[in-house]
Design a protein that fits this description.
Blueprint (H helix, E strand, L loop, with lengths): L2 E9 L7 H10 L5 E4 L5 E9 L3 H15 L4 E5 L2 E3 L5 E2 L3 H10 L9
Antiparallel strand pairs: 1-3, 1-4, 1-5, 2-3, 5-6
Helix pairs in contact: 1-2
């Protein structure tokens, strides 16, 4: 199955003080294929390398995993998506990911 590389950035409500517990919640929710960045206050960045049949499914499933761990998170930015075998690049911003989520009702609703 192809691998896709992409970054998701989320805005968070007032930050948790225990970053280890926060990262553990993300890992338990399925974000074990991501590097987690929590350096900026009330922001979360995850750099994924996710296997999936399509780029859209990879991004959608990653968003679902993050929102399962942190339901109050709001997607701020997504992309670019790189297909590891051919290095195709497709930029996805939060608006296009949100529009795709609305077009495919099996995915979660995203706040803006």
């Amino acid at each position: 199955m192809p691998q896709f590389h992409f970054t998701l950035k989320f805005a968070l409500p007032p930050c948790e003080s225990d970053s280890d517990a926060f990262v553990e919640r993300l890992y338990s929710a399925g974000c074990h294929d991501a590097l987690v960045g929590i350096g900026l206050q009330c922001r979360l960045a995850l750099k994924f390398t996710r296997e999936s049949p399509t780029a859209a499914e990879a991004v959608r499933s990653a968003i679902d995993d993050v929102l399962r761990a942190v339901p109050e998170a709001v997607l701020a930015e997504a992309g670019p998506v790189r297909f590891s075998e051919t290095y195709l690049v497709k930029d996805l911003d939060a608006r296009s990911v949100h529009a795709d989520a609305i077009a495919h009702p099996l995915s979660v609703e995203l706040g803006e």
